[in-house]
Amino acid sequence: MTVLGHGILELILIIIMTFGLKDFFSKPTVAGFIGLFGGAFLAWMGYRMIKSGINKSVSLESQRAGNSAGVRNLALAGALVSATNPYFILWWASTGMESIRQSYALGLNGVLFFFMGHIFSDFVWYTAISTAFSRGKKLISDTVYRWIILLLGIFIIAFSIYFIGSGWKMLQM
């Protein structure tokens, strides 16, 4: 239910970006800066993930969430937590916007498939994390978790290079 709330908020953002701002964001200069900024933000995220994996500063124990027993509407809580998370806002203002811009090159179907893939990946990721939290160290060790974070950080760095390259090409037009 929490991921549903998160997804509804993302759907609203995608609709606004696709229909309300698509002409503005399709301008080469704007698209180029979004690509550069989004790529730089992804590179920073990837670097932090790699650093935390190497320094062993990330663990399942330190990631445990507080008790949410008082929350009656988990979907609303998911939307509110996402909307107030500065990383969520930064991601959508940079990397998310660039993803929407690139997926719109395939028309509305491209945006729809991006959204479906993005929401599915959110659902899979948060399901895995909540399962890991509920089952504790029986399911995944801190070492395995650190390796996952490290490998995902490397993947994000590679993705950032693609966005930076795309942004640079757009600025050269």
Your description of this structure?
The protein is mainly α. The protein has one domain. The protein has 8 helices and no strands. The longest helix is centred in the last third of the chain and has 31 residues. It is globular. About 5% of the residues have low confidence.
Shape: globular
Query: Separation of termini?
Result: 44 Å
Largest sheet: none
Order of helices and strands: HHHHHHHH
SS content category: mainly alpha
Quote the average pLDDT.
80
Low-confidence stretches: 63-71
Number of domains: 1
InterPro entries: LeuE-type
Main location: membrane
Pfam families: LysE
Transmembrane segments: 7-25, 31-50, 71-92, 104-126, 147-165
Quick synopsis:
This protein has 173 residues and is mostly helical. It has helices at 2-20, 22-25, 28-54, 60-63, 74-83, 86-103, 108-135, 142-172.
For the structure shown, list the relevant keywords.
globular; mainly alpha; transmembrane helix; transmembrane
Task: Summarize the topology.
Layout: H1 2-20, H2 22-25, H3 28-54, H4 60-63, H5 74-83, H6 86-103, H7 108-135, H8 142-172
Helix pairs in contact: 1-5, 1-6, 1-7, 3-6, 3-8, 6-7
Membrane topology: Multi-pass membrane protein
Transmembrane segments: 7-25, 31-50, 71-92, 104-126, 147-165
Subcellular location: Cell membrane
